[in-house]
Amino acid sequence: MGLIISAVLALFLEDVIYSVAALAGTFFFTALIYIQNGAFFAAIFQFAVGIGTLAVLFLSGEMLGDKPAKKASPKRTGALIGVGAILSMPAIFLSVSGSTGTTSNLDFGDALWNIRGLDVVLQALVILTVALGIVIVLHEKKKKDGQ
Amino acid sequence: MLAIGIYGLLTNRQLLKVFISVELIAIAATLNFVMLASSMGVGLGQAFLILAFSTDTAVSGIILALLVIVSKKYGTSDISKILQAIENKDETEVEA
User: How far is CA B47 from the centre of its chain?
Assistant: First the structure.
């Protein structure tokens, strides 16, 4: 329920900074769901990625976000929380229950390094290429602005 | 989560809110991996989750770079104002 409510608040709050704060709640609740399902590594990754994304979003939200003309009323915020609560009802009552019985002994470490070893290296290459691309784009833009 | 993200993507006019919508869609996808892996009892879902996270991070980086460029160029992060500025620029070029 908290996940859906914070997601709705993140999208529909007027001020970008409040939206980013609500997105922090979304990341937190997602990590909690991962822990509940026994995915501790996923929760740690979610925290790490989430903190990085939030830091960048806070900075860009402060730099680029247009300030709203009027402050959001508590009534509107309450209405958004209500909408989020209503939207989360199906997820609560129609939740998928537990294990289906097709358990295996394959744990996270085995799955990551024995099955997907090459894939992980290729992933790192893709991320490096994207990071270099972003640096080049921003560098070209800076050079163009300087002329 | 996917539905909320897509709705936000279609209705929001601010670039940062669009970015947040994309993040929500990515969370929906990663949540799907974990729930499926948890219900089947295999660790492979978590391993594939890392691929989803890295893709998400790469997409976030590209979107933020584009967002900064567009916001600096037009001085606003509102999509309707940006479109208006582009239209005004086109009209000025046609008149010239």
Answer: 24
Entry pTM: 0.70
Contacting A residues, span 35-54, partner chain B, CB-CB under 8 Å: 37-39, 41-42, 45-46, 49, 52-53
Identify the band that residue A101 occupies on the pLDDT scale cut at 50, 70 and 90.
Answer: very low
Would residue A103 count as lying in a domain? no
In CATH, what number is assigned to the domain containing residue B36?
1.10.287.3510
Burial class (CB in 10 A: 0-12, 13-18, 19+), B18: buried
- A64 located within any domain: yes
Give tens-digit pLDDT for A29-42. Answer: 888 888 888 777 78
Count of C-beta atoms within a 10 Å radius of residue A99: 10
Task: Give the Cα-Cα-Cα angle B51, B53, B59 (nearest 5 degrees).
Answer: 105
Instruction: Supply the ipTM of this predicted assembly.
Output: 0.80
Same domain, A20 and A75: yes
Q: Are residues A121 and A88 in the same domain?
A: no
Query: What residue numbers bound the domain in which A145 lies?
Result: 112-147
